Structure formats: structure tokens, C-alpha cells
Amino acid sequence: MSKVPSITLNNGTAMPQLGFGVWQVPDDEAFSAVGHALDAGYRSIDTAAIYGNEEGTGKALAASGIARDDLFVTTKLWNGKDETWTPDSVLREFDSSLTKLGLEYVDLYLIHWPRAVRDDYLSIWRTFEAIAKSGRAKAIGVSNFQPAHLRRLLDETSVVPAVNQIELHPNFAQPELRAFHAEHGIATEAWSPLGQGKGLLEDPTLAKLAEKHGKTAAQIVLRWHLQTGNVVIPKSVTPSRIAANIDVFDFALDDSDLAAVAGLNNGTRLGPDPDTFDI
Fold it and tell me: Contact at 8 Å (CB) between 133 and 118?
């Protein structure tokens, strides 16, 4: 049985607070990586159409023997093609993802980017609402949406996103966006939670906390995410790291530890700016 606690999304769906991400994992490696993750106790798997590994991910889920009700599967619409997104085209992409995953439904379906310069996320979202109503996505949400994008959804559509998956790590903690989520019942999910291996885990503050708790710097950061209330989806293809990333439920950070990690926030964004990024 998985030791990962769940949070309850705004529509009542239970979502594990720690999952396994497969960004940049080639399809022919996804079977093995997801298999190792499931063996280690992960039950939430996060993929996306653009990752190109939905088939390998789906094969690993099928081979695991784990009951579908015990899994939580997220995928995302890659809304970056040079086309006008109609309900039919959104549904076609969703059906393609389900086919590749070998599933009858997903637990969470996300719009990958707002593409604000094209101004089509409202119409896409209305089709997402229909997908949710059909039961083929247990919950729907967004990724990389800023407060202005979310506000339009709240004002002009009928379903509040269950999740906003955003870049979030100690160097880019996004407190204002997280506060907006909390105010409106939207769960915060962190992508690149460990800072993409670009120096965060070598920070002396994290090294001191790791020594204090007998853990790695990565485990300290993941524990900070969990205690901050974020859903987190670390990614690795190395079995030992996959196992270590879920081994974060036998210790807790105290208030001074949490403050020390929070003090690393310097506004360093590693990925694209959602306000200007056009995919």
C-alpha cells in the first residue's frame, strides 16, 4: 500500500500529494521508469501528450497489476499546434491520449499552457468541462496559468480548475500565485520541484538541513513542498533516486527549517514566462 497521503480536490476527487513525473523521459524508457516508480510505492503518474511517452507509461500501468482505482493518472493537452482549437479537435487529442495510455479515463486532464497571446483557452476549457461531465476525466485543471488567466476562467466559465500545475521550487516559490489558488480552492502542483539540477540542491542551506535530518538535499526540498501544501511530481529515471524521492514521510521540518528553505526564494524562473510564451 502506498504511504503517500492524498489531498481532496475541489470536486471531491482524492489526489496523492506526491507523484512521479515523466517529463523528458523517452517513450522506450518510460516503461521501466514508471515500473520502478510503481514498485517504489508511487500511485500518481504525470505525463503529457507533448512528452511523447504516453504509450510507454500506459504499458507500465497495465503491466503493474495495480487496480485502476488505486492509480491516479494525469495527462495534458498540448495546445500548441498552429490551429484553431475547436471542441472536435480538443476531443480528438483527448481520445488520442486515452488510446496511447490504454485507459478509459484519466484522473486529471490539464491545459498545458494558457497561450494568452492566442486567447483560446476559454473555448478549450469549455470543452474540458464537457469531458469532465462525461466522466472520462475525473478532474480537470490547468498548467502554467497566471492569476489573470485563472480569473477569466472563474468569471466566464462554470467549473473552477481543480489544479494549476506550475513551476515551483525554493528559488521560485510563487507565494502570490499560491495564495490565489488557496483563496479559490485550486490545488497547487509543482513541476521542476527540485530546480532541474541547476544548482539548487548544492545550496549550503539545504546541505545543513540535510545533515541535520540525515536526508539528502532533494528530500529536504520535497519535504518542504509537502509541508507547504503543494502537490509535487519529482522525476528521475534512476531507480535509487526514484526510491529516495518517495522516502520523505519519516521526518518533518520544523518552523525554522521551513523558514530557511523559504528564504531561498529569489524569483529565479527556469522555464518560460506564461504571459508571453506561445507554443
Answer: no
